[in-house]
Design brief:
heterodimer, A: N-terminal domain of TfIIb, 27% helix, B: mainly alpha, 17 helices
Chain lengths: 1021, 467
């Protein structure tokens, strides 16, 4: 049959067999492109027509800038790719943070790209413009009675600008401030000072409710100094830290001895200490301090007193901002009398003499209708002001209310005007560091706008955003340039200004130390007025959060998903309660409870925390945010708001609380099992034991090998291998990368986790996924509880083997002393095993070994059998169960990925993608990922020296630094070439206490750990 | 000459108490056997079949829906996490592969050992093998994160220079299972050719055409029979090592790893014994009701069932021994990790699975020491169901060892999602859909082989040969 017979050759039927097949082929190809195999960006990209002079595409430009968190300032070096800041690093030349950072400053770059930020002013909730506002200001508001409520008062420029307003009153409020410290110094010295402890000189430290390693201001500086002083590997000299606290903090975990008491009883302990010191120091007798009724506790305090006296000027007592002024005054007295003042602690004046009123005064004048126009700059009092002030009601008495901030937050929602603020990376600024140096804040990018976000068409006019400084200049009728304001106030011009901007610091400006005699009589009078609180009474302590601070970082996914360093719970603020107290009130883990303080009730969920003082509840602030009802995709419905219980007369802690169970709740706990089960993974020894037997860690490894196998495994003793199991790689040639992690230095702050997340485009997954155990962190912080109740720690652990079922710590019985609980922390990332178990089992060779000893991961090749992760004894591999990168990091906690995921990048707008590091692949779903030792940095470093014909080495400072090591304030992580005998990492791998995790299973990891050494008092009772 | 019927021959020769029970009961000659077996295919489709087939299709549809959902959203729809990266999919894979073991064992190993009683169950068991292996093969394919790239696990030359990593046990799996599936299929199909020809000769119209195609021109010539028997013998010899190799290699998925509780040399024999055990369990689960429904009790006699019970007792005891040895070695090794793993298996969060496994697999078969139990159909049926459950849980226990490995910080918990469970249920849909098609359209008993073990086939009337 010929074709003509069956085909109707009319005009309509142009489709013949050939063209039909062509069309079919084309549509099949299109279908596959639209499917999941080919994913190409839809947009056209246009390269630079003429490259800017100082730019090399693919290379970052790093600018000095500053991070300010209510007076806690860090110098930054911000990486920027083609005008797009992507990564925060510490500024190495900065005198305070010396190139180091913490989780919050690392996460600053994510705050910049928060799509929930407001990008335009609004009036009564309706989008408006700055022009409209400025006109209204000049016409109606400028002449009225104005009150300013500000948050940060440590900007010289800002402080100077306050003079520009004649008819304005100035008030200041931050939920957690050092007001007790200044009041305390006022009580002690007769004038208010700022306190500057110097841990680098302190041999014996007593921390009173002071988490100086994590939540207190200046924690980065403190960690750097403390870690440096912790253990001298050559002389075996160590400092000794005592911690007295109610909440179990990182500082308490790092402490050699810890005393768990209620926050209210810290004063009693301090007085007990003073009474002991008074035996030797006559001056203190005038305080007539009482001894503690608890004999054992008094004995312990006596040992501390003895130790402090011995250390003399190298002793240091510090108190946390939570403690009342009296404690701070007593601490000042003790420090002066011990001779520590001038060595380990100095006092300086507080910044510029601008008289900011308190929020209470503001509320009073609002209620007296003395304020017509209220301008709130940065603060969020509707959310976090003391509950008894009823701020929201008071502010309605003002005719006009104006809010200036990054977000349309709770305060913006009830103000008439909301003005969008410029982020710290978008604006000029200057910040006083604690001791009066001035750090400069340099913008890296024009303020982001709806145009960049992509929700407004390109070509529309971008709305402005003003920093606080610019706002004040505009309001006072000046020109809006933040640069001009800051440079003018710096007093620098020309080359001097340029240098200051380049260095991120105006050099040579620090306050001279101040001091005067202690007024013991005042203190003694004050002691007499302290009311007695029953130790049985249930106390609540309001604590700052280690991650979201006072709630300002609540919408930051990296910080929300970071497990709390102590509880390991993310996406929540559990009410912390001790085992005994929970039992007393009939509570069990993750019970939903109602906490009531003075008749006010708040909901919460309890977490039974080992080490928590009995009869003390810790309520962590900063959660349960609501924003303006629309914004806050990450923060919304996370945790509970406890500001509602906090009143102006009990900002820190108060007694007489009640707690009752009302239901159940569930936490996303990243480490449900918190004891080592006698596996001795974090090897930790007392200094005495270590001195007697420096090789103890190595010997312990041998003990891990079954007796009958020891001979066979004799080759394990060889420190290095020359051959890889999987290939014929030669580990004696080229660079051989390795890492050493010093657990004596590591405080467990988990800053490394956020640094890694930021560097390596690691997605977040949300609370629901985290509950199942699908978090993606490449470096995690393992935290195990240890117990020092007996003479022998090991024996205690041995009895605990596999007893654990529900409690996070497996002691039997209820009669253990919370004071004797300690922690052992260990950052665990890929160990880059020379005989890597993961490589052997991958059927598609997606993970393989590099010549330089890296365990590489080829994402494109991975089909996702997950066998590698099963076979990884360290469980460091992370798998994309969903297309996490698609929504991350703007994941709301309740996201259920399995119902609303779509293929492609459709859900991410431009802003969400801007933070990504261009040197690191964004992983698709179904792909395994893990730590690469920041291979992109290694490659960059190698390329940088290759042209010069040099090799990377520590002496030239050319060795690449992975993001975790770069951020680590304790400098616990050291990376380098283990083949180079002169490298720091080689040196550290060879110290006696160095060991490999799970060495007995013969994986030959490239990451080694240095055992955690503690320095307990030999006579401790 | 008329050939005497079975019962007549038995009357003449059977010595009670000395000879074994005959393998074909009732009054039969060659023709009645053909009639009886072919009747299953030739009688009008019973309503019950339609009902069952519809139900199976629905469950198969459920499987399809679950797979589509999985592929669309990602492996996250299952309860997997870190550290439990493998869950139901791998449990189901090993479970189905295990079931697929009985067929080849019955047809090949028992053939080589001249166990004549196998003829009544071999076709049936082989069919079950093929369908079970299909179910098994499905899971490794869909459990990977990017199933559309799963073909990278095959050594297919390509422009991307991708080549599999031959040291991975998963790759060995690919070869082991595909080889097993191929040989089992060939064995099954080849054995069926004479019977297909019988059906062809009796059928009309379209069925005749189809049977004709698939019987490949079989005419029953002596030459055909000679070639057939030789080929059958060769395939049996080829298949026999596969009985051992498949599950040995499946066990390597675990044994080659370094996970405590997986890394044990006992796994290969333990897995093979377990597989035979579960395979017989499944054969029994199917055979007991179907022999009744299809009125084939004369061919599948109590003696057959009794023999199968004995095999289950033997393999079940081997499995029980393996469980005990595992515990002993965990203690004897002196390794804290091994001890911890086994302690937690028995007392930890998934202890219910461990004790379910122990009870079903070790205790249940022990009832077969008693002849009463070996002869009671209800007891046998219930016990076989227990064995199926127990063997599924054995794999669950093994895979879920991942919950507690080296670092307590990483210990986790696996909770299956609805998708996990429905996918498992759906795989039974796949199995039964094919099985019902088999029962309806193919000769479910090896007609020619059964004739070979009848007394009539033995010119010397030596009934003892049936032993």
């Amino acid at each position: 049959m010929s074709q003509e017979e069956v085909m109707d050759k009319t005009e309509e039927s142009q489709v013949n067999r050939r063209s039909f097949i062509q069309i079919m082929g084309a549509s099949a190809a299109l279908a596959s492109m639209g499917g999941c195999i080919l994913r190409r960006p839809k947009e056209h990209i246009v390269p630079y027509n003429a490259l800017p002079e100082d730019m090399v595409l693919g290379d970052s430009l790093d600018y000095a800038s500053s991070f300010n968190l209510t007076g806690d300032v860090q110098g930054l070096l911000v990486k920027s790719y083609e005008g797009r800041p992507t990564k925060i690093e510490g500024l190495p030349t900065h005198p305070d943070n010396k190139g180091k950072t913490n989780a919050q400053s690392q996460a600053m770059v994510l705050e910049l790209y928060d799509p929930d930020r407001s990008f335009a002013p609004s009036k009564n909730g309706i989008v408006s413009t700055w022009d409209v506002f400025e006109k209204e200001w000049v016409k109606e508001l400028k002449g009225s009675k104005i009150a300013f409520l500000v948050e940060n008062t440590n900007s010289p420029s800002f402080n100077k600008l306050t003079n520009q307003f004649e008819n304005a009153a100035w008030y200041q409020y931050t939920p957690v401030s050092d007001v007790n410290v200044t009041e305390g110094t006022n009580l002690a010295f007769g004038s208010s000072y700022a306190v500057h402890p110097d841990y680098s000189k302190a041999d014996k430290i007593l921390a009173l409710d002071c988490d100086f390693l994590s939540t207190e201001p200046g924690n980065v500086k403190a960690t750097i100094e403390f870690a440096d002083k912790r253990h001298d590997k050559k002389t075996n000299k160590m400092n000794r830290l005592y911690a007295v606290e109610s909440r179990f903090t990182l500082t308490g975990g790092k402490a050699d001895h810890r005393i768990a008491v209620k926050s209210a009883e810290v004063l009693d302990v301090l007085l007990g200490l003073v009474s002991e010191l008074a035996d030797k120091k006559e001056d203190l007798r005038s305080l007539s301090a009482k001894k503690l009724t608890d004999k054992k506790l008094q004995q312990r305090v006596a040992l501390i007193a003895d130790d402090l006296l011995k250390a003399g000027k190298n002793s240091l007592v510090v108190a946390g901002v939570n403690q009342p002024a009296l404690v701070h005054a007593l601490v000042a007295a003790v420090n002066q009398i011990l001779g520590a003042e001038g060595t380990t602690v100095t006092y300086t004046k507080i910044h510029d003499d601008v008289d900011y009123g308190s929020i209470k005064e503001l509320v009073d004048s609002l209620n007296n209708e003395d304020v017509e126009t209220l301008v709130i700059i940065g603060a969020n009092p509707v959310y976090n002001a003391p509950a008894d002030l009823k701020f929201e009601q008071a502010m309605k008495k003002a005719k006009t209310t104006i809010h200036h901030g990054l977000h349309r937050d709770e305060t913006a929602a009830v103000c008439q005007w909301h003005l969008n603020a410029a982020h710290g990376l978008e604006s000029w600024g200057d910040w006083y560091t604690a001791d009066g140096k001035v750090s400069l804040q340099q913008p890296l990018i024009e303020p982001l706008s709806e145009v960049v976000k992509g929700s407004v068409k390109i070509g529309d006019k971008a709305e402005k955003a003003y920093s606080a400084i610019e706002l004040l200049t505009v309001l006072s009728g000046g020109a809006e340039s933040g640069h001009d304001t800051v440079s003018q106030h710096s007093g620098l011009i020309g080359a001097g200004w340029k240098k200051a901007v380049h260095d991120g610091l105006i050099s040579g400006r620090a306050y001279p130390p101040q001091t005067s005699a202690i007024r013991l009589k005042n203190i003694a009078n004050k002691i007499a007025t302290v009311p007695v609180v029953s130790s049985k009474s249930l106390e609540v302590v309001f604590s700052i959060d280690a991650k979201v601070h006072d709630g300002r970082y609540a919408n930051n996914g990296w910080l929300q998903e970071l497990p709390d360093p102590m509880t390991k719970i993310a996406w929540d603020n559990p009410v912390l309660i001790s085992h005994a107290t929970a039992k007393e009130y009939g509570l069990s883990e993750a019970d939903l409870v109602e906490v009531s303080v003075a008749g006010v009730k708040a909901k919460g969920a309890v977490h039974i925390m080992p080490g928590q003082a009995k009869n003390s509840l810790t309520l962590t602030l900063g959660y349960g945010r609501t924003f303006d009802g629309e914004k806050g995709v990450v923060a919304r419905d996370v945790g509970f708001n406890f500001y509602t219980l906090r009143t102006s007369d009990a900002m820190n802690f108060t007694s007489g609380a009640k707690i009752t169970p009302i239901g159940t709740y569930s936490f996303a706990n990243s480490q449900p099992h918190s004891v080592q089960e006698d596996r001795d993974l974090v090897k930790h020894y007392d200094l005495d034991l270590y001195k007697q037997d420096p090789k103890i860690a190595t010997r312990d490894i041998e003990n891990d090998i079954p007796k009958n196998m020891q001979q066979k495994y004799a080759h394990l003793k060889e420190k290095t291998t020359t051959k890889s199991l999987s290939t014929d790689l030669d580990f004696t040639k080229g660079y051989q990368w390795g890492m050493s992690i010093d657990l004596t230095r590591c405080t467990g702050c988990a800053g490394c986790t956020v640094a890694c997340q930021s560097e390596n485009n690691i997605p977040i997954v949300g609370k629901e996924e985290m509950k199942i155990g699908r978090e993606m962190h490449w470096i995690r912080m393992d935290r195990y509880f240890t117990y020092q109740g007996g003479d022998n720690l090991k024996q205690q652990q041995g009895t605990a083997e596999f007893k654990d079922k529900s409690l996070p710590i497996s002691h039997e019985g209820d009669n253990y002393d919370e004071s004797d609980v300690s922690i052992a922390t260990m950052p665990v990332a890929c160990q880059h095993c020379e005989t890597a178990p993961c490589e052997e089992v991958c059927p598609v060779a997606a993970t393989s070994h590099s010549q330089e000893g890296l365990n590489d991961m080829t994402y494109n090749r991975c089909v996702g059998t997950r066998y590698c992760s099963n076979n990884c004894p360290y469980k460091v591999r992370r798998y994309n169960y969903y297309h996490f990168a698609q929504k991350s990091p703007w994941v709301s906690p309740g996201t259920t990925w399995g119902t609303d995921a779509t293929f492609g990048y459709t859900k991410l707008d431009k802003l969400d993608k801007m933070q990504a590091n261009p040197h690191v692949t964004v992983r698709y779903r179904g792909v395994m990922e893990k730590c690469t030792y920041c291979v992109q940095r290694i490659n960059k470093a190698r390329m940088d020296v290759k042209g010069e014909g040099k090799v990377l080495n520590d002496q030239d400072g050319t060795t690449p630094t992975p993001a975790c090591a770069q951020a680590c304030p304790a400098d616990a992580i050291v990376f380098g070439d283990i083949k180079d005998p002169k490298s720091k990492v080689s040196e550290l791998r060879n110290v006696d206490s160095s060991y490999k995790l799970l060495e007995a299973i013969n994986t030959k990891p490239r990451t080694t750990f240095i055992s955690a050494i503690k320095n307990p008092h030999p006579e401790w009772v | 000459m008329t050939i005497k019927r079975t019962d007549e021959l038995l009357k003449e020769n059977f010595r009670p108490g000395i000879d074994l029970e005959p393998l074909v009961q009732g009054s039969h000659d060659f023709h009645s056997i053909t009639e009886m077996v072919c009747a299953v295919n030739e009688r009008k489709t019973p309503k019950a079949w339609y009902v069952a087939f519809f139900a199976a299709l629905c469950v198969l549809g459920l499987l399809g829906a679950m797979i589509a959902y999985l592929v669309y959203f990602g492996t996250g729809v299952w309860g997997l996490n870190n550290p439990v990266n493998w869950g139901f999919a791998i449990v189901n894979f090993v479970f189905w592969v295990g079931i697929g073991h009985a067929g080849t064992l019955i047809s090949a190993v028992l053939f080589l050992f001249r166990q004549n009683w196998r003829t009544a169950i071999n076709r049936w068991a082989e069919a079950m093998t093929i369908f079970a292996v299909m179910c098994a093969g499905l899971f490794p394919g869909i459990h990977v994160g990017r199933p559309w790239l799963a073909y990278w696990m095959f050594p297919i030359p390509n422009q991307m220079d991708l080549w599999p990593q031959f040291k991975s046990p998963l790759l060995w799996d690919v070869f082991a299972v595909s080889t097993y599936a191929t040989v089992s299929f060939l064995f099954w199909y080849m054995g069926m050719i004479p019977d297909l020809a019988t059906l062809r000769d009796r059928a009309k119209g379209f069925p005749r055409l189809m049977y004709g195609i698939f019987s490949m021109g079989w005419r029953g010539a002596t030459r055909h029979w000679q070639s057939y028997e030789r080929a059958y013998m060769i395939l049996a010899a080829l298949a026999t090592p596969l009985v051992l190799s498949v599950h040995t290699i499946v066990s390597y998925d675990f044994a080659v790893s370094i996970v405590p509780g997986w890394h044990t040399t006992i796994f290969p024999p333990y897995f093979v014994a377990g597989a035979v055990f579960s395979g017989f369990g499944m054969v029994m689960t199917l055979l007991v009701p179907f022999r009744k429904m299809l009125q084939l009790e004369d061919l599948v006699t109590k003696r057959h069932l009794d023999n199968m019970c004995k095999i289950m007792l033997a393999t079940g005891s081997i499995v029980g021994y393996a469980y005990c040895i595992e515990l002993f070695i965990a203690w004897y090794s002196g390794s804290g990790f091994e001890r911890g793993t086994f302690w937690l298996r028995a007392t930890g969060q998934s202890a219910f699975a461990y004790w379910t496994m122990f009870l079903c697999n070790v205790i249940t078969p022990q009832i077969f020491w008693f002849k009463k139990c070996r002869n009671s159909l209800p007891i046998m049926f219930v016990a076989s169901i227990f064995v199926n459950i127990g063997m599924w849980f054995e794999r669950y226990v093994i895979v879920l060892t991942l919950e507690n490995d080296y670092l307590p910080s990483s210990w986790g918990k696996y909770t299956p999602t609805a998708i996990d469970i429905l996918t498992l249920v759906g795989s039974f849909g796949l199995f039964f859909t094919f099985f019902l098609l088999f029962v309806r359209f193919l000769p479910i008993f090896a007609i020619s082989e059964i004739k070979g073990i009848m007394p009539q086939a033995d010119p010397h009337r030596d009934v003892k040969k049936g032993a």
